[in-house]
Queue: 2 jobs
Job 1
Amino acid sequence: MAKKNFPLSDVYRLLEPGPVVMVTTAAKGRPNIMTMSWHTMLDFEPPIVGCVISNRNYSFDILKATRECVFNIPTLELAKKVVACGNTSGRKIDKFKTFHLTPADATCVKAPLIDECYANLECKVVDGKMVAKYNFFILEVLKAWIDPSKKKDPRTIHHRGNGAFMVAGETIKLPSKMK
Amino acid sequence: MAKKNFPLSDVYRLLEPGPVVMVTTAAKGRPNIMTMSWHTMLDFEPPIVGCVISNRNYSFDILKATRECVFNIPTLELAKKVVACGNTSGRKIDKFKTFHLTPADATCVKAPLIDECYANLECKVVDGKMVAKYNFFILEVLKAWIDPSKKKDPRTIHHRGNGAFMVAGETIKLPSKMK
């Protein structure tokens, strides 16, 4: 998928609506994927993001050690693979191979991009003070990529619990002073 | 609107999809409303939530002083009022009166519920350590309310920046082990 550079100042527009994210990490050249929805923007520019990654997840130890990951944002076509990644552990399988997802090289981090996702955000941990108490990592987005064909109305999926997902519907525009 | 008690263990199902929230506070009996999208779940039960409220907002000082607020979740019919609340400051106007919204008494906090919102979460600040650096408040949800008629497929709105909102579409169900 031919991705283009996406301005860092607009990263909040991708995450603020609350999509499910596939977080990729890499330990010693071995990539992993986990499904995650507990994230929030913390600042606009540079874009700072907070997210919860449970210490029961394989990705927790990798992220703590490498301090690098990629937020990959999937759309509806990938829903089954998103759930499959959430139902399995990288301790036991290579999720890229098992679920036929394509790793692509990132620019700023060693963790791979998931090529099939419409947007990818390369991140590094900038503050780990909340990890011990809340499993909450604070990350800076260093580089962002987007598939220009899906930029307008991405059919992102939003977890409603127990495998129920709300699929993004229409976009409306209202006169707003809010950023 | 006749609301029912909503189980605290299911609160994550309301917030995890990333809806815009109207945060109500009250200072000396004077209520206020602000529009907010930068929130994340931090734990399931008791439900712990993190959110960013900028120190430029009037609500910041009230929340810091009273340590209480309500997260009110609006649906599409309220979109214009959501934006109106985001475009104005409670320093200058009473938003309940100006935008014809109905305050209702909460059970556990002094901040009011917005009756027109389909769900309301009464919250108290449980950790303020991240406020100075990130304007990030950590709250426990003490009590949750829902309009049972809108529980199934709420048409929540999700901010995409600059007054563009994605409206929640259909819900799909996939076999998942994820909570």
Note: Residues 58-66 of chain A form the longest helix (9 residues).
Job 2
Amino acid sequence: MMCVMDSAAPRRARSAEAKQERERAILAAARTLGGERSVREVTLTDIAAAVGMHKSAMLRYFETREQIFLALTAEGWRDWATAVGEWSADRTVATPEAVAAMLARTLVARPFFCDLLAQAPMNLERNVSLDVAYRFKMAVFAEVASVATVLRERLGLAEAEAVDVIATATGMAGALWQMAAPGTSLRELYESRPELAHAVIDVEPRLTRILTALLVGYQAGAVR
Amino acid sequence: MMCVMDSAAPRRARSAEAKQERERAILAAARTLGGERSVREVTLTDIAAAVGMHKSAMLRYFETREQIFLALTAEGWRDWATAVGEWSADRTVATPEAVAAMLARTLVARPFFCDLLAQAPMNLERNVSLDVAYRFKMAVFAEVASVATVLRERLGLAEAEAVDVIATATGMAGALWQMAAPGTSLRELYESRPELAHAVIDVEPRLTRILTALLVGYQAGAVR
């Protein structure tokens, strides 16, 4: 009995480690491909080819293409919340303008995350099991709570106001990023025709303006 | 010559009329199906079956499934801008709270339009010819200008501020509607677990709060 456990435990550990390594490789491949083109253009076959696995073998690690990108969305939330926390750690007070500019800057600096933010509720969450969706939501809530703490401490917002600001920052980062359509023939069209000038969206200043007005409005007690 | 023209003109007219009638029938079928389930679940085959046409015949009227839904998105913009205009015609002044509530109410009353608003930049505009995308953009700009006039006249917003408010109202209506996931098993999950209470999104009050703060912020001269 003792002997069996002794030999089985390291084997399980090795196997768990190998599994994690495979998962990491799959996520890394999807991250690279998603950064190169838009998420909607990356198929499961593309990811399998990049990681050198057969598609059917990859499905032992992730149940769908969408689960892979949902895991990267959760990773994006963690990474973004960390950047917001680091910004906050460097200061004791902040203005609505400074917070708005920071939120916009940190989001726009993560174009893959912006793409995922719009994809998640429409496509990703709907093509995974409820268990995966549940764990994703819980992971996101933890990051929302962390960013909300920064907004409450630095600007004195109420909890519900902070959550609204985060929903607007991430929702509009996703929406504006899709509308901006960077690197596409649509974007070329917008830039080539003066009458389409309004369609040429520069996400960071646009998002900064919207979030500044929103934060000023909440600070003015607009919705108490 | 005279004789040829006499007989050809009505034939062309009949043919153009028949074509328009077919187009109207296709749009009506897509509108009904899109209202029954989410837009992403409606295929070209579904629309063809509903209208009693062969898929290949339908492609003589619309180049892709996405062109059909893009036409319905433009129709949604016209319909929504008309509702905003009617609201405005009934009053001479308005508060940010009243305008925010009206914008949220008129958008949420159009769930199919909310669904399309999120689909358009991510999926629809990207799967049509540049010519179709161009005409769609020009049609939307006309409606944005009409709603912007209401916001400028009723709240004294600058043009760029009005355009930002419209982008936020429609962008967040689309994003929140997707997040709310009405009628899905995801929504049932959110409602069944107390720890997921934050995921249960009631779009109209949420959007009203966000737009109120935004309008108060712009009126306070947040971004001048």
Note: Chain B touches chain A through 53 residues (CB under 8 Å).
